[in-house]
Amino acid sequence: MKLVVGLGNPGVEYQNTRHSVGFLVIDELKKTKIKGDVLFCKSDLFMNDSGDFVKKLSTKHSVLSTDLYIVHDDLDIPLGSFKIQFARGPKDHNGIKSIDEKLGTKEYWHIRIGVDNRPLDNRPLGEEYVLQNFTDEENKKLGVVSKEVCKKLATLLANTN
Question: What is the fold, at CATH topology level, of the domain defined by 2-159?
Answer without folding.
Answer: Rossmann fold (3.40.50)
